[in-house]
């Protein structure tokens, strides 16, 4: 009877970062400030692209979608964590935990596909500039965005189905700051091999081809740039790609450390660090990297500023 009670877990306890009472408020303020900055920066980019017609191009449409994904992903994690830090009520229902896991994985997959679409956009712009508006028409751009969201949110349904069927008798304590796949698998007493296999299959079918698309795109891009005779022309061509390439490196670096390894190698402290980098640093850096190095975004920002001031 005792083991049966353990199996019927209806809620979990998120252990977060520390149980020390004196550290709760500083951590709360740090994450609140970071969350507001990320929402403000990504929200500014999102609104800027909507209102400035000069930014109504495929590249900025993808960037707008990337900002939407970043806002959604961090809003899926941080507000609940802030609530737990503020109230010391660290429990989350099984349904809430599975929902948070589903949204996190789905938005991450969508992010992956959008980065691939952005690489293809840069490839067409640099390698086939005369055919750019034909190859990257509004219809094709819309199709790529629709595919990214649709595949991202349907590809992970199998994960959620099998996670919801797990029995959690090992522990109800999740040694993480939100509900994620690997921490849940670690406290389950069920056979998790199917879910682990799904993670590897998803990585093989979705992430690896997307990464290869980005890699091949940049091989052609760099090859084309090196053929440009003018040094200034090469610099301008490459400057349009460096922002995207930087974001890709950060994204794939952290995502590989989080998921592309066996569950047995799970280390709570290490995984919390990489998850923190992915959840906070990636959405914070994405808009800053794109906007700080982009003259068109700076010009649009100045125009809006002058409109508001004037």
Structural topology:
Elements: H1 2-7, E1 11-14, H2 21-51, H3 58-87, E2 91-93, H4 94-127, H5 132-135, H6 138-154, H7 157-164, E3 173-174, H8 181-186, H9 193-226, H10 231-259, H11 268-292, H12 295-309
Helix pairs in contact: 2-3, 2-11, 3-4, 3-11, 4-6, 4-7, 4-9, 4-10, 7-9, 9-10, 10-11
- Helical element count? 12
Largest sheet, strands/sense/barrel:
3 strands, mixed
Task: Give me the strand/helix succession.
Answer: HEHHEHHHHEHHHHH
- According to CATH, what is the topology? Rhopdopsin 7-helix transmembrane proteins
Could you name the CATH homologous superfamily?
Rhodopsin 7-helix transmembrane proteins
Which residues sit in consecutive blocks of at least 5 with pLDDT less than 50?
Answer: 1-6
Helical proportion?
over 70%
Describe the protein's architecture and organization.
With about 300 residues, this protein is mostly helical. It has one domain (about 1-310): Rhopdopsin 7-helix transmembrane proteins (Up-down Bundle), CATH 1.20.1070.10. It is built from twelve helices and three strands; from the N terminus they run αβααβααααβααααα. It has helices spanning about 1-5, 20-50, 60-85, 95-125, 130-135, 140-155, 155-165, 180-185, 195-225, 230-260, 270-290, 295-310, and strands at about 10-15, 90-95, 175. Strands 2-1-3 form a three-stranded mixed beta sheet. The radius of gyration is 21 Å and the shape is globular. Residues about 1-5 have low confidence and may be disordered.
Search tags:
77% helix, 3-stranded mixed beta sheet, globular, 310 residues, mainly alpha, disordered N terminus, 3% strand, 3 strands
